[in-house]
Amino acid sequence: MDAVLLIARLIIGLGLAAHGMQKLLGWFSGYGLKGTAGFFESIGFRPGVLFALAAGLGEVAGGLLTAAGLFGPIGPSLIITVMVVAIVAVHLPNGFFAQTNGYELALLYAVLGFVLAILGPGMYSLDGLLRLSGVWDASVAWFMAGGARECCAPTGSDSARSDSPAVVRGLRECRGGRGRLTMNRRNVPEGEHAV
Questions:
Q1: Which of 4, 51, 70, 182 has its CA 20 to 30 A from that of 118?
Q2: CA distances (Å), origin 104, targets 57, 78, 90, 97, 101
Q3: Where is average pLDDT lowest: 31-45, 139-153, 168-182?
Q4: 51 and 44 in contact (C-beta within 8 Å)?
């Protein structure tokens, strides 16, 4: 299983990092920061340079952290966040297939990022080498995915709010000295949704 995670991390992480380098430096036939900023401005993200920089850095950092298997679910969570924004802002109106600039590829990156965030980087990773694997568990990935969901949630959606009782209780437990956020069915009262 660890070898499979290594292969998946390298393909997904380096692929997305290369995609980010297209945005930032124009490598691999990309448009660079200026060209990407112009595109972002054209779809309503102003100032375009700031959003192009954020997207490019999110892709490069998320991709490289994922490929290296460093800091557990942080890299995959960056991938998920950038891809969800790309799906909603650019690809969704074009349908599913990548051939028509649809959301197919972005969805694949987001889902694979989610799988890697939940499974962890495996033994063949910098986390494994540095013995950081025990620091991260699935609850951290769920919490980070909830934060990404908060960025994209419509205003007033109680289940996605970071101040909902379930999230506040989870944060208190995390800060309470146990060192781990444990959001699961045991500590979410009936009728509330864990993020």
A1: 51
A2: 22, 18, 12, 5, 8
A3: 168-182
A4: no
pLDDT at 156 over 50: no
Spatial neighbors of 112 by CB under 8 A, at least 6 apart, are 8, 12, 79
Question: Taking a C-beta distance cutoff of 8 angstroms, is the pair 162, 147 a contact?
Answer: yes
CA–CA separation, 83 and 109 (whole Å): 7
Question: In the prediction, which pLDDT does 79 show?
Answer: 94
DSSP 96: S
Sign of the dihedral defined by the CA atoms of residues 93, 98, 101, 106, in that order: positive
Higher pLDDT, 159 or 51: 51
Look at residue 143 and tell me if it is in a domain: no
pLDDT score recorded for residue 50:
94
Higher pLDDT, 30 or 114: 114
For residue 152, what pLDDT is reported? 46
Segment 66-82 shows an average pLDDT of 92
User: How far is C-alpha 122 from the chain's CA centre?
Assistant: 18
**Residue 36 resides in a domain:** yes
Q: Which helix or strand (DSSP H or E) is residue 10 part of?
A: helix 2-25
pLDDT at 75 over 80: yes
DSSP single-letter state for residue 174 = I
Number of domains the chain contains: 1
Tokens of 186: 């045991």
For residue 176, being part of any structural domain is answered with: no
Tokens of 89: 């802002």
